[in-house]
Amino acid sequence: MRISTLSCFAASFAILTVGTLAGTGCSDVNQLPTAARVRSVPALSSRVPSAHGIVIRQRVADKRARHLTADEIARVKSLRGTWQWAADMHHAVMQEAIHDPSLSGLRQQRTPAERCSIALHYLKKHYPDVEARLGKHNSAAERTAAINSLASQVGACPASQSQASIFAVSAPRLAVSARSVRARTSVIRTASGTINTEQVTNAWRDYVVAMSADIRAAKDLGDATDIMDTYLATASADPDVPQASLALIAGTIDLATSSANEWDTFARPHEGSMFMWGWLSDLGDWVAGVVTSDLNGCIDGVNSGWADAAFAQAAEGLCFGGALFGSIFAAI
User: Fold this and answer.
1) Which ranges of 237-279 does DSSP label H, i.e. alpha helix?
2) Eight-class DSSP state of 219
3) pTM (2 d.p.)
4) CB 42 within 8 A of CB 107
5) What is the rounded distance in angstroms from the CA atom of residue 27 to the CA atom of residue 301?
6) Which candidate, 2, 295, 325, 321, places its Cα nearest to that of 134?
7) What is the 3-state secondary structure (H, E, C) of 35-101?
8) For residue 179, what are the CA distances in angstroms to 2, 199, 315?
9) pLDDT tens-digit profile of 22-37?
């Protein structure tokens, strides 16, 4: 089923919230990942930067080599924090999942079906909070359809009979219909003017996919933060990035920053002062992988549907929902 209404986006938004929660973490001695439980992060569909995304990566690399100017730092600071509510919700739900005794800790050997079941449990529990945020009150059927559709688009849940056993209803992979193509290429009216949804999301996607690839190779939290700040500064100075795209990029970075801080906080006490991300540390590689899964989930969330109105709010919800779903899938 394809979701193209704001109410569906609200549901998608909820999904992401649930996903990240289960996967995020703060320090918890009782959940120290042991050698016996170490495993690689399950990857969602890979993301390859576009031709323009490759150009953006080079611009960012050049700017990082020179370091941000005082004006660029101030500009980045002014753009940050637009999705603080999402970061706060992300943290709250993650903490609940991290301390959930029924999960027996993170980084467990679980099947995709088990991970999906856990994510959906949290999603259904916290969905009313997401609806309240978006000012929507969906019926039970609309809520179920929206949750299933987003999970299907993210691609983290098993298909066919396994999916049916988890969702109680089938949720086939989303198909692009003529109507969805029209929605993706249409110009919609907002309170501040008109928005070409295709242009806005393409610009946002070019930056976010490229940033995700760079964060996957980050050495530590400071390096990841510097990468995100530089991408935001670069987007802010890019004349080809619409203001609506810049707002989405900044909000996505708010979510990714929250994820990076939470996972680093969770892992660092167990690794010592020299804790590094990436291949030098299995746990550090896991942290980078979960943060990247957050971003990939966000991308899939936005891809799962479009709104005919309130575009920015809908895209925000879709990104949030997808990111959380991707995070929990990778973390638990």
Assistant:
1) 243-271
2) S
3) 0.76
4) no
5) 28
6) 321
7) HHHCCCCCCCCCCCCCHHHHHHHHHHHHHHHHCCCHHHHHHHHHHCCCCHHHHHHHHHHHHHHHCCH
8) 10, 18, 18
9) 343 333 333 444 333 3
CA angle 329, 214, 151 (to 5 degrees): 25
| 3-class SS string, 283-315 | HHHHHHHHHHHHHHHHHHHHHCECCCCCHHHHH
Label residue 95 exposed, middle or buried (CB < 10 Å: 0-12, 13-18, 19+).
middle
SS3 assignment, position 182: helix
> Letter for the amino acid at 215?
I
Identify the residue whose tokens are 């995100």: 228
pLDDT tens figures, 220-264: 999 999 999 999 999 999 999 999 899 999 999 999 999 899 888
Write down the number of H helices and E strands in the chain.
Answer: 13, 2
In the chain, domain spans: 6-331
Q: Which residues neighbour 272 within 8 Å (Cβ) at sequence distance 6 or greater?
A: none
